[in-house]
Structures are given as C-alpha cells and as structure tokens.
UniProtKB/TrEMBL annotation:
It comes from Gossypium barbadense. PANTHER family: AROGENATE DEHYDROGENASE 1, CHLOROPLASTIC-LIKE (PTHR43207:SF3), AROGENATE DEHYDROGENASE-RELATED (PTHR43207). GO terms for molecular function: arogenate dehydrogenase (NADP+) activity; NAD+ binding; prephenate dehydrogenase (NAD+) activity; prephenate dehydrogenase (NADP+) activity. Gene3D superfamilies: NAD(P)-binding Rossmann-like Domain. This is Prephenate/arogenate dehydrogenase domain-containing protein. It comes from the Eukaryota. InterPro entries: NAD(P)-bd_dom_sf (IPR036291), PDH_N (IPR046826), Prephen_DH (IPR003099), TYRAAT1/2 (IPR045011), TYRAAT2_C (IPR059064). GO terms for biological process: tyrosine biosynthetic process. Residues 242-269 form a coiled coil.
Length: 276
C-alpha cells in the first residue's frame, strides 16, 4: 500500500493507493474497476469466465488460476460475484494460500448473507467490510455524485486501509451511509426488492411505451427496463438471501388483492345503482 497526500472526509486518516483483487469480473465488477483504475489504484481480476481479452484492453492482469491471484500482493479482495454463487465461489478458494492480512470487501445487494459467509469461511486475521453501492452501470454511468454507498465495518482492525477503500466512493461524491447489515436488508426488502418485483411483473405483462404516455406510465416503462437489465440471478438473490423479502412479497400480493376487491365492490355498487 503506498501513501498519498489526500485525506478521507469521514476521518482524519490518510488515504492510500490500494492493490485491489476483484473476484467476479462480470458487469458490476468491470464497472467498479474502471473508477478504481481512474483513481490510480492497481486492480487485478479473476472470474469463472475467461476475461483475458477484455482485461488486456483495460490493462488489468487477469488470473485464470485463483492460486496465483490469492498469492498476489492484494491489500483488498473485492467480491463482485452473484449473490447465488457467493458460497460456492468462496468455498472453492484455497484461502490458506493468502500471503498476508487482507481486507475482504463484498458489494452484494443483500448484506446479512455475505457477512455470515465471510465470517464463516475467512481466517480470523482477515478484515471484513460489507458494502452495497446503491447504483449500477446505468444509474452511475456518468457520475456517482449523491448516490448512496451503504456499508458496515464488520471486522476492521486496519482502519487506514478500510478508510482508503471507502474513500474511493467518498471522493466520487457518494452519500456514505453506515448501517448494520440487518437494517440494510430490512430496508432493501421494502425498497429495492419491491421495485425489482414490480419491474418484473410489468415485464411479465409486456408493457411497452405508447404514443400517449403519461409521466407515471413513463416511470413504469423505465422501471421495467432498469430491473430487467439486471440478471435474473441478481433478482432471485434479492429474494432467496434476504430474510425480509418473503414478507414483502406477501404484502405485495395482499395489497394487490385488497385494491382489486375495492374496485370490484365499487363496480357492484355502481351496477346496483344503475339497475334501480
Ligand atoms: P450478477 O448476475 O449478480 O453476478 C455476475 C457475476 O457473478 C459475474 O462475475 C459471474 O462470473 C459471477 N458468477 C455467477 N454465477 C457464478 C458461478 N456459479 N460461479 C462463479 N461465478 C459466478 O450480475 P452483476 O450485475 O455483475 O452483479 C455482481 C454483484 O454486484 C452481485 O452480487 C450484485 O448483487 C452486486 N451489485 C450489482 C449492482 C448492479 O447494478 N448490477 C449494483 C450493486 C451491487 P462470470 O462473469 O465470470 O461468469
């Protein structure tokens, strides 16, 4: 880790240039890597798919074999795999090959699950920071200003290194939200999971833009498009690995039924009025 002169806005600790090893170089891993590289951090990647060519263009060393990746000198190992594959990916990594104390960071869209898995599989001397950037390649395409970064310092002993990592987001203008993984999942089930579910329902209905869109309908079309741009693995991960999501799905179903019953009741009242 090499020191630089800037300092973190959330603490007086100096920030450092980091060597960041990315596990899972799909859409989101690539998206994050671009900003890290722009900021002068060193990145390297490993993934199930062979991204050698793409990595060559980005000047990011790509490791097909996870052992040299783990043995490389990483300050941070950044987990960007799908929610569904997290356990399989971490359990398949020979973590004893790690040469030094490392900060493990995840960016999964659920938080209790990666916190539990990381604490279970990692050696005790590894630090753990759980994060959720509440934006993606579309919403964060031009800039990250004011976009939320939710995080919990689950097991952090090296504060300078952790603060240097968080500074990547701070320096882009993100709104830094420190919150427990449990609280994140509670809130996300009622916001992110709900909006993804409604987007998927709208896609199932096949809604399309019309020549007479209202502003509200345009919002629905955009919601459908943005949620279906994300993989179905991501959406199902939001449900399977967030213990609060099932209740929200039931709430959605019950509320739909209530609204439907109110409409049917009103229709029957109107019909009996007009038949007098
Ligand atoms: P994703 O479909 O959730 O995850 C794709 C990544 O998971 C790829 O790197 C893929 O590897 C890896 N993967 C999937 N199944 C695997 C398996 N069986 N074994 C090994 N690796 C596997 O799509 P994503 O959008 O890139 O998201 C990555 C992570 O970031 C997710 O945890 C998501 O919740 C989180 N996140 C995404 C966004 C967003 O806007 N997209 C925002 C915030 C957080 P290969 O590419 O090598 O196949």
């Amino acid at each position: 880790m090499s020191s630089s002169s800037s300092s973190s806005s959330s603490s007086s600790l100096p920030t450092q240039t980091l060597k960041i090893g990315i596990v899972g170089f799909g859409t989101f891993g690539q998206f994050l890597a671009k900003t890290m590289i722009k900021q002068g951090h060193t990145t390297r990647a490993t993934s199930r798919t062979d991204y050698s060519q793409l990595c060559h263009q980005l000047d990011v060393p790509f490791f097909r074999d996870v052992i040299p990746f783990l043995e490389a000198d990483n300050d941070v190992i950044l987990i960007c795999t799908s929610i569904l594959s997290l356990s399989e990916v971490l359990n398949s990594m020979p973590l004893r090959r790690l040469k030094r104390h490392t900060l493990f960071v995840d960016v999964l869209s659920v938080k209790e699950h990666p916190r539990n898995v990381l604490l279970q599989v990692l050696p005790e001397n590894m630090d753990v920071l759980c994060t959720h950037p509440m934006f993606g390649p579309e919403s964060g395409k031009n800039r990250w200003k004011d976009l939320p970064l939710v995080y919990e310092k689950v097991r952090v002993r090296d504060e300078t290194r952790c603060s240097s990592f968080l500074h990547i987001f701070e320096s882009e203008g993100c709104r830094m939200v420190e919150m427990s993984c449990e609280e994140h999942d509670k809130v996300a089930a009622r916001s992110q999971f709900l909006s993804h579910s409604i987007g998927r329902i709208l896609a199932e209905m096949g809604i399309e833009s019309t020549s007479m869109n209202t502003k509200s309908f345009e919002t629905l079309v955009k919601l459908k498009e943005s949620t279906t741009n994300d993989s179905f693995d991501l959406f199902s991960g939001l449900f399977i690995h967030n213990r609060f999501a099932q209740q929200e799905l039931m709430n959605l179903e019950q509320s739909f039924e209530k609204v439907k019953q109110r409409l049917l009741k009103k229709m029957s009242e109107q019909q009996s009025l007009s038949s007098v």
